[in-house]
């Protein structure tokens, strides 16, 4: 690690504004995660688009776990993530050919279009088209923003800066829960307000595109060396950037030799980060977090809370989510990635097992939990959300964005984003049906996955704290007891 990389930078107002404006891409994504579950539980929305679900909800005493089990209702949530899955590969190409900033700009435009169409929907097909446009915006934003933040951050703050994306995701979820709580009494168009307000974070991101610079790595990669050097001086706040500039140029020269970055993902230097990126995204979803965040109001109604109480409980979990992400910002560059992930596995496992145990014994197909047990479940959900928010949430985005070599960085990260979207859509599409079939045992299902995740971290995930992003192969992969075997013939 060069001294210049560590010390030769200043934290200026400009660079902080770049971080914050880019991180509004996370606010956009988080708002959508939070808004979906609340809107799905609003009577006015169900009457207009899903009358069969509304009829079943009126007879909720028939089965606590199955009143929202409807494939079309789940498609309302999951269609966004299928759209994001496909669009992330187009975003990867846009990132490479046009740069990070124009791709972020496109993300905000697609998202605003999705918000307008969703809020104006009169038919179910309009609702789905709006969700697909939301998805394209999410695909472009989630592909580009974490890469942007990683590439503009000084090495000693790379983890904390990248986690701003996840922090804004959690803030977006929290704001969405507050909005749902407020609009749930605005009959008959509260759901329109909830969906339409998604345009606000996208508009802030759009404005930010006129403030932020493109990243030095992106400019140099596209042959704009002078602009890249100027951008590097601007984001570092100093004139002497020669050492870091030469390292970026060398990495870009190596990247130019690669004509087919997706094909090069099977070469030794890219295999470890590709495997880790894909599995981190799979595991992030199989913690069960998005099942809880999408459907928190629905989940709390299942436990016997009234509609307002359910939304309020979701607001509480959203607030915990935001607060705990600050822990990650503080700790990730001090404690490292592995310690946070392993600690969280233990905490999430205990929380999920306890929730599953309480519900399996006390919440049958009819009836409700008593108030004390319901309060305990809310506390356990908060404990679970807390541990996720300082570990698998932010680090699932940070680690893939910092571990790929330059020549396969956008292609590799596209696989990470698309994997995340694929498994997010699977969970979104399947969760309410799984809740109906498995009932409380769904929490034991997610608990088993948490054990697998912990073993993955222990044996396959190296520590990347403090390692320059263009030195990962030499400093990390070639020294790891498992991954070094890939490099025997080099």
UniProtKB/TrEMBL annotation:
Any one annotated GO CC term: membrane
A Pfam cross-reference name: Sugar_tr
Predominant location: membrane
Signal peptide positions on this chain: none
Entry similarity comment: Belongs to the major facilitator superfamily. Sugar transporter (TC 2.A.1.1) family.
GO molecular function per UniProt: monosaccharide transmembrane transporter activity; symporter activity
Keyword terms: Membrane, Sugar transport, Symport, Transmembrane, Transmembrane helix, Transport
Gene3D superfamilies listed in its UniProt record: MFS general substrate transporter like domains
Transport listed as a keyword: yes
Annotated Major facilitator superfamily (MFS) profile domain residues: 18-465
Domain of life assignment: Eukaryota
Protein name (database record): Sugar transport protein 8
Native source species: Nicotiana tabacum
CDD domains: MFS_STP (cd17361)
PANTHER family documented for this protein: SOLUTE CARRIER FAMILY 2, FACILITATED GLUCOSE TRANSPORTER, SUGAR TRANSPORT PROTEIN 8-LIKE
Transmembrane segments: 12-31, 72-91, 103-121, 127-149, 161-179, 191-212, 274-298, 310-333, 373-399, 411-432, 438-461
Keyword Transmembrane: yes
PROSITE patterns the record matches: MFS, SUGAR_TRANSPORT_1, SUGAR_TRANSPORT_2
Compartment(s): Membrane
Topology term for the membrane: Multi-pass membrane protein
């Amino acid at each position: 690690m060069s001294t210049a990389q560590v010390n030769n930078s200043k934290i200026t107002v400009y660079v902080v504004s770049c971080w914050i404006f880019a991180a509004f891409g996370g606010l956009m994504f988080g708002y959508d995660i939070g808004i979906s579950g609340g809107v799905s539980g609003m009577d006015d929305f169900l009457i207009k688009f899903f009358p069969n679900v509304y009829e079943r909800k009126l007879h909720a005493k028939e089965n606590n776990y199955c009143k929202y089990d409807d494939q079309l209702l789940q498609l309302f949530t999951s269609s966004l993530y299928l759209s994001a899955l496909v669009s992330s590969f187009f975003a990867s190409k846009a990132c490479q050919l046009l740069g990070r900033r124009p791709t972020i700009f496109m993300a905000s435009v697609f998202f605003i279009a999705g918000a307008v169409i969703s809020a104006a929907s009169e038919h179910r097909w309009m609702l789905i088209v709006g969700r697909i446009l939301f998805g394209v915006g999410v695909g472009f934003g989630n592909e580009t923003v974490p890469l942007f933040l990683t590439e503009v951050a000084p090495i000693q703050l790379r983890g904390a800066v990248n986690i701003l994306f996840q922090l804004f995701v959690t803030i977006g979820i929290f704001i969405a829960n507050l909005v749902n709580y407020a609009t749930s009494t605005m009959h008959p168009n509260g759901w329109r307000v909830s969906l339409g307000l998604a345009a606000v974070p996208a508009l802030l991101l759009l404005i930010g595109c006129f403030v932020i610079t493109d990243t030095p790595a992106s400019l140099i990669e596209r042959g704009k060396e002078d602009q890249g050097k100027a951008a590097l001086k601007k984001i570092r706040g100093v004139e002497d950037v020669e050492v870091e500039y030469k390292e970026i140029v060398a990495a870009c020269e190596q990247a130019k030799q690669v004509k087919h970055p997706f094909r090069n993902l099977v070469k030794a230097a890219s295999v470890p980060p590709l495997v880790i990126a894909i599995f981190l995204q799979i595991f992030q979803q199989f913690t069960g977090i998005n099942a809880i965040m999408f459907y928190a109001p629905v989940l709390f109604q299942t436990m016997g809370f009234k509609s307002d109480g359910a939304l309020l409980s979701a607001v509480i979990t959203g607030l915990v989510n935001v607060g705990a992400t600050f822990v990650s910002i503080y700790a990730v560059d001090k404690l490292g990635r592995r310690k946070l992930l392993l600690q969280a596995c233990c905490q999430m496992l205990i929380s999920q097992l306890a929730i599953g145990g309480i519900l399996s014994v006390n919440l049958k197909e009819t009836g409700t939990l008593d108030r004390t047990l319901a309060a305990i479940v809310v506390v356990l959900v908060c404990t679970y959300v807390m541990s996720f928010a300082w570990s698998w949430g932010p680090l699932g985005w940070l680690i893939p964005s910092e571990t790929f070599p330059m020549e396969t960085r956008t292609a590799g990260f596209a696989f990470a984003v698309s994997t995340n979207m694929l498994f997010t859509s699977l969970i979104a599409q399947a969760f309410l049906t799984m809740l109906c079939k498995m009932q409380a045992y769904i929490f034991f299902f997610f608990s088993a996955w948490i054990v697998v995740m912990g073993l993955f971290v222990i044996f396959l995930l190296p520590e990347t704290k403090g390692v320059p992003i263009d030195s990962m192969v030499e400093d990390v992969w070639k020294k790891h007891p498992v991954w070094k075997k890939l490099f025997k013939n080099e």
